[in-house]
Amino acid sequence: MTTKAAIRAEAERLFAAFQAAGAVPVDADILLPAETLLDLYGEDIRARAYTTTDPLRGEMMLRPDFTVPVVQAHMAHGADPARYCYLGEVFRAQQHLGNKASEYLQVGFEIFDRTAPEQADAEVFALFANLLAPLNLKPVTGDIGILMAAVNGVETTDRRKAALLRHIWRPTRFRALLDRFSGRAPMPAARIALLDKLASGAPETLMQAAGPLIGLRAAADIAERAAALIDDAKAKPIAAPEAALLYDLLTLQAPADAALAHLKGITFLLPAIAPAVDRFAARLAALQSRGIDTATLPFEASLGRTSMEYYDGFTFSFLAGDLPAIGTGGRYDALTAVLGQGRSIPAVGGVIRPALVAQLKGRP
Q1: 314-319 and 327-331: which strand pairing?
Q2: Spatial separation of the C-alpha atoms in residues 298 and 306, rounded to whole Å
Q3: Residue whose C-alpha is closest to residue 102's, from 114, 115, 112, 93
């Protein structure tokens, strides 16, 4: 059994390595305002976090990870560029009894730099690869930005694009929406019945017949939603070739160089992905300059879609059999804009779980 002392020693070793790479140590509050996290991730975050109520500060959450508080601190008074590192506990509520920890140490490294984002991606990945090299882990990379660019480029309504983008981090829901929007799946019977009901009269008349309003939505909000549902039902399906490209991206898995060649080959069919593919190519060149063999480096276009909803570009994981990911990370440029009160900066980072590193080192 791995002892707490061994885990702490491994955490301190990684923390020192991040400082040696130029990162400034930062502390982050353990209790965070729930409102900020709920605004970012919606109510889904409640299933993964521990919440409590403070008599003065309102609803609070035990820190589910470090990225949000580090971004907030940097956007408030950080210099540009900047490198940060941190060490501390995070708390994740588990849905089932088992060997998944509800509280564990994380050690992380973050770069805020607007001059050369792809070089920063490569720096973080190469640093993690070198630190974890003795463990013979499987590295996997991805790029959610390519899928997001593809969604933005398809010919459909803005409302449908927004729905797909909102559910990129929920693969099952995303696939169901894509199936419906492309005509591959029939409209659910309950939705057909609802649309028939909405078409039977004016929203005001239907609301009066339904009884008194209950809840927080005003009559105008309900009428607007009804109109949106009717408009959506009239939208034409996403064209089969464009839908096929989205399905292709969802399942794309190949060595990174081969994945780049494939993406370049389909760019003329969906020109909107061209800038994201160019960034992918620049990142591979930066990785090669740091000694990473991109001809064998695994790439999965959907990697990171089940993680917290702030990755919007490069993603990576280091895996070992049936264990949770030993190290994970990625790019989260949009998050800095959300938390930056009008300011933004490209940012990338990652975390390592020292308990898993110590566990692997303790195996015969």
Answers
A1: antiparallel
A2: 18
A3: 93
In the chain, CATH 3.30.930.10 sits at 138-183+238-319
pLDDT at 206: 64
Q: In what order do the strands lie in the sheet with 82-91?
A: 24-25, 82-91, 103-112, 347-352, 327-331, 314-319, 138-143, 298-300, 253-255
pLDDT tens digit sequence for 196-212: 777 777 766 666 666 67
- The top-level CATH class assigned to 138-183+238-319 is alpha beta
* Cα gap 119→279, rounded to integer Å: 10
Q: Identify the pLDDT of residue 41.
A: 73
Comparing CA positions, the residue from 294, 290, 303, 285 lying closest to residue 257 is: 294
pLDDT at res. 209: 66
HSE-CB for 73 with a 13 A CA cutoff: 18
* Strand order through the sheet with 58-62: 31-33, 58-62, 51-54
Q: Report whether 153 contacts 271 (CB < 8 A).
A: yes
CA distance 311 to 334: 8
Asked if residue 95 has pLDDT above 90, the reply is no
C-alpha distances in Å from residue 364, one per residue of 138, 322, 357? 19, 17, 14
Residue with tokens 């490198």: 83
Helices (H), 182-319: 189-198, 203-210, 219-234, 240-251, 256-266, 274-289
The residue among 324, 306, 325, 303 whose CA lies nearest residue 314 is 303
| Nearest Cα residue to 37 out of 14, 62, 5 | 62
Q: Which candidate, 169, 160, 145, places its Cα nearest to that of 40?
A: 169
Q: Is the pLDDT of residue 219 over 90?
A: no
User: Are 86 and 108 in contact, with CB atoms under 8 Å apart?
Assistant: yes
CA separation for the pair 165, 153 (Å, rounded): 12
